[in-house]
Amino acid sequence: MRLGEILPGTGAFAVVQRNYRVWRKLLVPSMLGNFGDPLLYLLALGYGLGHFVGRMDGVPYITFIASGIVASSVMNTASFEGLYSAFTRMSAQRTYAAMLATPLRVSDILAGEVLWCAVKGLISAVAIMIVASFFGAIQGPWIFLAPPVILLAGLSFGGLALVMTALARSYDFFMYYFTLVITPMFLFCGVFYPIHSLPPFAQHLAQVLPLTHVVALLRPLLTGHLPHAAFYHIGVLWLYTLTAYVGAWRLLGRRLLR
Q1: pLDDT (tens digit, 9 = 90+) per residue, 135-178?
Q2: What is the C-alpha separation between 99 and 40, in angstroms, rounded?
């Protein structure tokens, strides 16, 4: 593996631009899908369940859950883009094959897709943050630090999703990833309740999952505090991002160039 082969060039931005132009034509339905479900969770659980829960970790439950919903929306949006949309471009539309007929390399295509996943995650998360702020569920002086964290989270989840896409033979394959990876993270990584309420073995398992570290960074930032052990959480997310990128590059290269 040569470093020059795996490092992307400026062509990655051309891939992002191409995806943006396509997405722009479907802006309204895409936005509805990106933050419709998180908004329903915020309203139903934040107000409905929050009426019975009251406060959690010293804040109203709607404030507690809002930051978790922002984090999970990044995961879901970036994962969906890296799975279903990317697989469509790779397999059904054969867009990647057309790109490889240009000066673009596999690393350019991959990096462009990962960046686009991160951008889509940021758009979805910011939309939720705007809505949640109207309910007073997000506030504080550190909100401006959230977008870089969201972008890093989108890179992590987008890279992991593209590993699955490079392995997939059909859309049905993605149900394994959602059932075995996405859903457990959604339920056990601190979106709805503190991780310390889990049994010890589950707490240790949760610490291995990337969504735990996204929540650990975003929840303080969106409630007016600086996160503890921020560099540790950021380091874990970068480790996921780089490892997933290398793995996806190897797998995608074998599939596209065989």
Answers
A1: 888 888 899 999 999 999 999 999 999 999 999 999 999 999 99
A2: 38
Q: In whole angstroms, what is the distance from residue 128 CA to residue 113 CA?
A: 23
- 3-state SS class at 223: coil
- The answer to whether the beta carbons of residues 164 and 174 sit under 8 Å apart is yes
Burial class of 33 by CB neighbour count within 10 A (0 to 12, 13 to 18, 19+): middle
Residue type for 31, please?
Answer: M
Q: Can you give the residue range of the structural domain that contains 182?
A: 8-257
Please tell me the distance from the alpha carbon of residue 83 to that of residue 100, in angstroms, as a whole number: 20
109-121 pLDDT tens trace: 999 999 999 999 9
Number of domains in the chain: 1
2 in a structural domain: no
- Under the phi-then-psi rule, with left for phi > 0, alpha for psi from -120 to 50, and beta for the rest, what region is 209? beta
Residues 81, 55: Cα–Cα separation, whole Å: 35
Give the CA distances from residue 123 to residues 8, 33, 43, 74, 77, in Å, rounded to whole numbers and listed in that order: 24, 12, 20, 9, 9
What is the model's pTM? 0.93
Domain assignment present for 105: yes
At residue 60, the 3 state secondary structure works out as strand
* DSSP for 80-132, written as a single string: HIIIIIHHIIIIIS-HHHHHHTTT--HHHHHHHHHHHHHHHHHHHHHHHHHHH
Is residue 151 situated within a structural domain? yes
**3-class DSSP state for residue 18?**
helix
Q: Is residue 123 part of a domain?
A: yes
- 3-state SS class at 240: helix
